[in-house]
Design brief:
With 191 residues, the protein is mainly beta. 11% of the residues lie in helices and 35% in strands. The longest helix is centred in the middle third of the chain and has 11 residues.
Length: 191
């Protein structure tokens, strides 16, 4: 965040369901958008408050997979389970903030002081379509392939654009696409 031009303020607080060292929240102290140079507040969990004794007991692990992370936290709080996001990854199957997997299977019994690690979805990966207009067909195919995008080609005669050069593309530069999406290129056949 500091490299991106923001100041960072870190605060720690106890949390009954978020593992020690994990981020509880981040944002502006007032909750609004920030301009460059302003302060981003990050709240880090210190784990459970040692002054608030919680009875250790065996609990049955619920199914967190497919649940929004916020809902998983509510379920964990009811049972006294501690959660930790071990990883976030893109998914075409799970929407943003849904739990993809959990380290302890549903139905297993664990001590409520144990930590269950979750993999949480970032949603579908989106890519910015690069500008390939006026590149050769070979250069355009290579660049789009490196970005995980497919290519569909049509050829047209042109008196102003050299043969084997991209005359136009759809979607245009800067549009958002998902990995595997096809970018349509119109390639000059020359005159």
């Amino acid at each position: 965040l500091e490299e991106a031009g923001f100041s960072v303020s870190i605060r720690e607080e106890y949390h009954n369901t978020i593992a020690a060292g994990a981020v509880i929240s981040q944002g502006s102290p007032e909750g609004g958008e920030l301009a460059l140079g302003e302060t981003v507040e990050i709240v880090i969990s210190k784990g459970r408050d040692p002054d608030q004794k919680q009875e250790e007991k065996m609990v049955k692990v619920p199914e967190f997979v497919g649940m929004k992370y916020s809902e998983a936290l509510k379920q964990a709080e009811k049972l006294g389970i501690i959660l930790e996001i071990s990883q976030k990854e893109y998914s075409t199957q799970y929407t943003k903030d849904e739990v993809i997997s959990q380290s302890v299977e549903k139905g297993q019994e664990i001590l409520n002081s144990n930590v269950i690690q979750l993999v949480v979805s970032l949603g579908k990966e989106e890519l910015k379509v690069p500008d390939v207009q006026y590149m050769t067909e070979e250069q355009a195919r290579k660049l789009l392939g490196e970005r995980g995008l497919g290519v569909k080609v049509t050829y047209q005669t042109s008196e102003t654009v050299a043969a084997q050069v991209v005359m136009s593309q759809f979607p245009e530069e800067g549009a958002m696409a998902e990995p595997g999406d096809e970018i349509t290129l119109v390639i000059s056949k020359g005159s």
